[in-house]
Structure formats: structure tokens, C-alpha cells
Design goal:
By secondary structure, the chain is an all-alpha fold. It has 5 helices and no strands. It is elongated.
């Protein structure tokens, strides 16, 4: 069975999650109500970004891959900025997730290499320019010419 990933919708949904976490950072939330939820949301967003990044990195045949990679890079920058705000104590809920500081710092450090790799991928797309859009790679030829077996 073919596993289908809806990169556009997934990226959009994560963008909304990050936006809501940024809005929540401006509020004075009750720790007893929101501490666990905020920590879980931050962990979820980090994990989902990593999974999408890994899938896009492996899948060169995805239609609109360059656009997804560009949007993913924006999301990663946005998420790392949020983590930086939390670490600096600028987020209203920073004190609530203080016990998660090590995990957040790990997430921040883990994003660095991924962001650099994505920036390199985008550079490759930019260098290919319009010429690269109509070129079929060797991997695509193999995929197109292979016989499907079920």
C-alpha cells in the first residue's frame, strides 16, 4: 500500500500550531490548566517538523517539492524563534515550561543542521532554475519505466 503524505496540508497545519503558540506566549495563562498542553504542543511541532523534513529529504519525486521545502524552512525558522523567545523568558508561558528547558534546547540545536541542509537544497533548486523544471532525473525515469507489481 502506498503511503500518501499531504505535505501542503501538514505544513499549513503546523504553521497554524506555531502561530497559536506564539499568540499564547503573549497571554498570562494559568499554569495548572495549560502547562502540560503547551509542553506537548512544542514537542509535537518539533517531532512533526523533523518527520516532514525527513520525508521531503528522501522523496525527490514529490510534486512541488521545492515549494514545500521553502515553506518548511520558514516554519523551522519560526519555530526556532519561538524556542529562543521561551529560552529568553520572553514568552508568557516560559516559566510554565521551565522544566522542559533541556528538551527545548535540544530541539533548538537539532534544528540547526536541518535548516542548513534545507537552505542548501533550496540553493540547488535556485541554481537549476527554469531549466531544472523540465528535466527528468534518472530516479524519475526508473520510477516511470519500472513495472508495478502488486
Amino acid at each position: 500500500m502506498v503511503k500518501r503524505i499531504n505535505f501542503g496540508d501538514d505544513i499549513f497545519f503546523l504553521a497554524m500550531k506555531i502561530k497559536h503558540l506564539k499568540y499564547a506566549a503573549e497571554l498570562e495563562l494559568s499554569p495548572e490548566l495549560f502547562r502540560d498542553n503547551i509542553a506537548e504542543e512544542l514537542e509535537f511541532v518539533f517531532s512533526a517538523l523533523q518527520k516532514i523534513y525527513s520525508s521531503l529529504k528522501k522523496s525527490s519525486l514529490v510534486i512541488n517539492r521545492g515549494e514545500y521545502i521553502k515553506n518548511l524552512l520558514r516554519l523551522m525558522h519560526s519555530f526556532t524563534a519561538l524556542i529562543d523567545d521561551i529560552a529568553a523568558g520572553e514568552a508568557g508561558y516560559a516559566a510554565m515550561v521551565a522544566d522542559q528547558r533541556d528538551a527545548l534546547n535540544h530541539s533548538r540545536r537539532a534544528m540547526g543542521p536541518a535548516i542548513e541542509e534545507i537552505a542548501q537544497l533550496l540553493t540547488q533548486y535556485d541554481e537549476a532554475g527554469e531549466e531544472g523544471k523540465d528535466i527528468i532525473s534518472e530516479e524519475e525515469y526508473k520510477h516511470l519505466l519500472s513495472e508495478e507489481t502488486d
